[in-house]
Amino acid sequence: TLLRDNSGLGFSIAGGLGATPFKEGSENLFISKISDGGTAARDGKLQVGDKILQINGVDVTDARHDQAVQMLTGLERFVRLVVERETLVPRSSAPPTSKNSVGNENSPKVFGVPKPYKG
Predict the structure, then answer these.
(1) What would the pLDDT profile of 19-77 be if each residue is shown by its tens digit?
(2) Residue 105 half-sphere exposure, CB side, CA atoms within 13 Å?
(3) Rounded distance, CA 119 to CA 117, Å?
(4) Which of 6, 46, 60, 63 is least enclosed, having the fewest CB within 10 Å?
(5) HEC letters along 85-118
(6) Using 50, 70 and 90 to split pLDDT, how confident is the model at 89?
(7) In 12-114, which ranges are continuous DSSP H helix?
(8) Among 59, 46, 49, CA closest to 23
């Protein structure tokens, strides 16, 4: 959630239906720039390349660019964004995968049988 100040929210968006894609093959909306010293930069949670999924609870995954701009530049003082961030896991820190594993090694362990409550 960002609190709008007199200079706005401090970020720019790109993409959306009917606009030049930010990422090739995607019509989604993305954070394209974060202004130095702006609200978003001070908040520190958004990053360039974050995909915008919702603005103030409204799904914008299929929104036009101009619709999203209108929602972001509206009169609301607080703007709540839901974003998705693509993260790459380096091979060295990726969990090992084994074709012989059953998949139980991450299951919770049960020690003994739960005893009924006797107040």
Answers:
(1) 999 999 899 999 999 999 999 999 999 999 999 999 999 999 999 999 999 999 988 88
(2) 8
(3) 6
(4) 6
(5) CCCCCCHHHCCCCCCCCCCCCCCCCCCCCCCCCC
(6) confident
(7) 39-43, 65-72
(8) 49
